[in-house]
Amino acid sequence: MKIYSSFDAPSLRRSVENGTLEQRKAVLDILEEVRNSGDEALYFFTNKFDGVSLSTLKVTDKEIAEAYERVDNTLIGIMREAAQNIQEYHEKQQKTSWMMTRPDGTILGQKVTPLDSVGVYVPGGTAAYPSSVLMTVVPAVVAGVERIVMVSPPQKDGALNASVLVAAKEAGVTEIYKVGGAQAIAALAYGTKSIKPVDKIVGPGNIYVALAKREVFGIVDIDMIAGPSEIVVLADETANAHEVAADLLSQAEHDPRSSCCLVTASQSLAEAVQKEVELQLQTLPRKEIARASIDEYGAIYVTENLEEAIKVVNELAPEHLEIIVEKAQESLAKIKHAGAIFVGRYSSEPVGDYFAGTNHVLPTNGTARFSSPLNLDDYQKKSSVILYSDAAFKENASKIAAFARSEGLEAHARAIESRFKEEM
């Protein structure tokens, strides 16, 4: 990792907008093919991209039962406990419908309704992510979504990862299909003979999945356009260099385009972490991925003081932020932009990834400036309720009609006047 002053550090943005024209064209072609050919296209692309020839897309109850036999009971217990933590955290976010009454008898309110159906994308490929299943499905169940459809690319043997299937069953998924990539997003958005369309698609994926989600937005809703993972550690001289380096590498091993940054006012800590990263890289099983991430998107920012360091953090607006400074709570109060904030030595980022209960589907690439983690609001919609009273209408009808005419909308005005025109 290179050490920079906070003023000469390079841009580390890795937006999905950086997808090549070839990638974007490929996604558009896949979407169109699935829209036109349905299941036939799904089988074709699964064979082409995953090297698997399937006879059916839907996961059976038998496959789920077999998955339970292959997963260690201890891990199943851990997943159940994690799911309970996620459920409790998201239950606190629950909003209810409300009504207000004005003195003139008018009733105004908001009706909160769960979505009918949600599609959950779970990545496959180089790793299996049962934790992502829990993070995307449990909040949907808490929100009251009735139909939860999971899609994930099959392994070479044509099956889904056993721990992913167990997590899906434990979390409350109602349908599971063996399909991934842009073609899975197309199926969820447009529907096929096997897969009925959903109202919203959530969950992280590679750049093809991200580009596909962007293209189908408007036909369905989506949670966010997620880029590669990232972490920023805000630390001072009280931090342990070995622990900081380990936390940085916990994100570097995700993807060659993951970003890992230390922001500190301590030159000695910066140099110690730099050395520790190199040492720990040597023994990582995914060291080639982590090495590429560190070399291309890793950085250590050395600032003049803590205040400047906090300013840098807010400018980066990271997906994950760890605060490991002497007065962490004071620094927390000054943070404006971050997806998830981990405070103190024992709040290592994987605590939130797996177990604490907060959601690990988070805004990336600086979008924490205006976006939030996946939460219960993503699975619900709100309708305005207006019950205008007789008295309120008589008092305000002429004002409403005048307002409409000021915008050149005569029919709007007449719609009002048709009710009490004789009294106006």
UniProtKB/TrEMBL annotation:
GO BP annotations, alphabetical order: L-histidine biosynthetic process
InterPro entries referenced in this protein's UniProt entry, alphabetically: Ald_DH/histidinol_DH, Histidinol_DH_CS, Histidinol_DH_monofunct, Hstdl_DH
EC number(s) reported in the record: 1.1.1.23
Protein family (similarity comment): Belongs to the histidinol dehydrogenase family.
NCBIfam families: hisD
Main EC class the enzyme belongs to: oxidoreductase
Classification lineage: Bacteria, Bacillati, Bacillota, Bacilli, Bacillales
Cofactor or coenzyme needed: Zn(2+)
Cofactor comment: Binds 1 zinc ion per subunit.
Name used for this protein in its record: Histidinol dehydrogenase
Pathway, per record: Amino-acid biosynthesis; L-histidine biosynthesis; L-histidine from 5-phospho-alpha-D-ribose 1-diphosphate: step 9/9
UniProt keyword annotations, A-Z: Amino-acid biosynthesis, Histidine biosynthesis, Metal-binding, NAD, Oxidoreductase, Zinc
Top-level taxon in the UniProt lineage: Bacteria
Recorded GO CC terms: cytosol
Catalytic reaction list: L-histidinol + 2 NAD(+) + H2O = L-histidine + 2 NADH + 3 H(+)
